[in-house]
Amino acid sequence: MCEIYVKADPIHYELRTRSIRIHGVVTSIRLENMSWDVLARIALKDGLTTNQLICQLYDEVIRQQGKVSNFCSFLRVSCMRYLSNVAGQEEKAAILQGKPDGKAAAAMPMVVSTILRKVAGG
């Protein structure tokens, strides 16, 4: 199983810094290339540019929590939550079709697997 991770192309975890303008203030955000790719996927799905998505996420977290102590970490966690949600939807669809994929379920976090079992009635 570790080969999935250790054989990852180093370009995926290379850090990339981008300048983003949030409410007229230019700030630098440093994330792994894979995080930037996931943000771009989310933005495309939502009909936004990556910068627009980041501004929207910033506004939403400020509105919800009043502050954000580490915005880059928030963005990374948002990416992981998105990918976990996508994996969960695929697994749920497989379960509902009676075709659970053991490999996909094993690769998912325990929490997501538990939720899916409850949703499927198991």
How is this fold's topology laid out?
Layout (H helix, E strand, L loop, with lengths): L1 H5 L3 H4 L1 E8 L2 E8 H13 L4 H16 L5 H26 L5 H6 L2 H10 L3
Antiparallel strand pairs: 1-2
Explained architecture:
This protein has 122 residues and is of the alpha+beta class. The chain has a single domain (9-119), classed as protein bp1543 (Ribbon-helix-helix fold, Orthogonal Bundle). 66% of the residues lie in helices and 13% in strands. It has helices at 2-6, 10-13, 33-45, 50-65, 71-96, 102-107, 110-119; strands at 15-22, 25-32. Strands 1-2 form a two-stranded antiparallel sheet. The mean pLDDT is 85.
Individual helix count: 7
Roughly what fraction of the amino acids lie in strands?
Answer: 5-15%
In the CATH hierarchy, the third-tier topology is known as Ribbon-helix-helix fold
In total, the number of strands is 2
The CATH architecture is Orthogonal Bundle
Query: Helical amount among residues, as a percent range?
Result: 55-70%
CATH superfamily: protein bp1543
Classification by helices and strands: alpha+beta
Mean pLDDT score, rounded? 85
Low-pLDDT ranges: none
**CATH class placement:** Mainly Alpha
Shape: globular
User: What's the main sheet like?
Assistant: 2 strands, antiparallel
* Helix and strand pattern: HHEEHHHHH
